[in-house]
Automatic annotation (TrEMBL):
PROSITE patterns: AA_TRNA_LIGASE_II (PS50862). Its EC number is 6.1.1.20. It is an enzyme of class 6 (ligase). Belongs to the class-II aminoacyl-tRNA synthetase family. Phe-tRNA synthetase alpha subunit type 1 subfamily. It comes from Pseudoroseicyclus aestuarii. This is Phenylalanine--tRNA ligase alpha subunit. Its main location: cytoplasm. The keyword Cell cycle does not apply. GO terms for cellular component: cytoplasm. One of its GO terms (molecular function) is tRNA binding. InterPro entries: aa-tRNA-synth_II, aa-tRNA-synth_II/BPL/LPL, Phe-tRNA-synth_IIc_asu, Phe-tRNA_ligase_II_N, Phe_tRNA_ligase_alpha1_bac, Phenylalanyl-tRNA_Synthase, tRNA-bd_arm. PANTHER family: PHENYLALANINE--TRNA LIGASE, MITOCHONDRIAL, PHENYLALANYL-TRNA SYNTHETASE. Pfam families: Phe_tRNA-synt_N (PF02912), tRNA-synt_2d (PF01409). It is found in: Cytoplasm.
Amino acid sequence: LRQKYLGLIGAAGDEAALEEVRLAALGKKGEVSALMKTLGKMTPEERQTEGPRLNALKDELNAALTAKKAALGDAALEARLQEEWLDVSLPARPARQGTIHPVSQVMEEVTALFAELGFSVAEGPQIESDWYNFDALNIPGHHPARAEMDTFYMARREGDNRPPHVLRTHTSPVQIRTLEAQGAPCRIICPGRVYRADFDQTHTPMFHQVEGLAIGKDISMANLKWVLEEFFSAFFGRPVKTRFRASHFPFTEPSAEIDIQCSFEGGTVKVGEGDGWLEVLGSGMVHPKVLQAAGVDPDEWQGFAFGMGIDRIAMLKYGIPDLRAFFESDLRWLKHYGFGA
Ligand code: PHE
């Protein structure tokens, strides 16, 4: 019996099999237990020799069971460790990281530079009523500027009597919205998307502008020139001269188009050197009618506004010849200009 059960214990492959062996030997109906019950019917002499023998057998089997159980536990743990083994020294596969789009990058830079000059950021909707986009900016219905701007009009159903809406053609409506909301004095920029039906090497139907507006008691074009030269010099990392050319916008009087100093040698444009000029923004003193439309008293307040093409200055800064490439999401292009991961 001893040989039989020691053999079975040794052969048990897992804890369940081991438990079966235990029950067969030492369980209530086990073989060893049955032998123990026969002790009662023995003579005292027989019991004296058989009793210790049976107890010793029982103890030996119990000890063997305990030892085997521990061994099986160790083996199970070892197997699990083998199975769950990880080589943490294996180098990770390189994950391709996204990057900030050049236009977003330039927008952030522009915002940060104007923040240093005391301008906060204002925003307005890209779908704008024609009142904010045109009328309030002194562009009445018959004005040729409406046709010139190649406006996208929102489709209207029969019987829709909401005011007509457009995709904003410039960021200037934010001048009105901000003055209405905050009043004067005021010093804001508004970077954002604008839309015009135009498409060639230097025009895309969606592009980016940054509007600037500074209203106070005695703000002048001289302040505008200083602010812009500070900005351009910081943006291009070298002193940049500006040139003001008399121009016309319905919402400013007087108005000026502003060029920055450039050289054009060898087909590349370099800002801040040479004797060439490149137009980068429209500007002027805010027209009294515009202040009035926004609820600001033009006898008390005055100031400048400007609108600058963000994509345009991004092209200049990074030497990018074709505006359309900005919006084609070609990773090879982004990488070539140093924007890819
Ligand atoms: N809104 C004008 C444009 O888009 C630019 C501009 C802004 C001009 C502010 C003067 C003042 O062309």
